[in-house]
Amino acid sequence: MRVLRILLEKEFRQVFRDPAILRIIFLMPIIQLLIMPLAADYEVKNIKLCVVDFDRSSYSQKLVNKIAATKYFQLVDYTDSYQKALIYIEKDEADLVLQIPSSFEKQLVKEDQATVFMALNAINGVKANLGGAYLRSIIGDFNREIRLEWLQFPRLSPQPTIQVSAINWFNPLMNYQVFMVPGILVILVTMVGAFLSALNIVKEKEIGTIEQINVTPIRKYQFILGKLIPFWVLGLIILTIGLIISWVVYGIVPAGNVFTIYIFAAVYLLAVLGMGLLVSTFANTQQQAMLLSFFLMMTFILLGGLYTSIDSMPPWAQTFTKFNPVSYFIEVMRMVVLKGSSLYDIRNHLFIVFVFAVVLNSFAVWNYKKRS
Amino acid sequence: MNDDHAISVSQLTKRFGSFTAVDAVTFNVKRGEIFGFLGANGAGKTTAMRMLCGLSFPTSGQATIAGFDLYRDAEKIKKSIGYMSQKFSLYEDLTPRENIRFYGGIYGLTDQQIKSKTDFMVDHLHLENQVDNLVKSLPLGWKQKLSFSVAMLHQPKIVFLDEPTGGVDPVTRREFWMMIYEAAHEGTTVFVTTHYMDEAEYCDRVSIMVDGRLDALDTPLELKRKFNAPSMEEVFIQLARKAKRSDN
Question: Which range of residues forms the domain containing residue B162?
Answer without folding.
Answer: 32-50+75-240
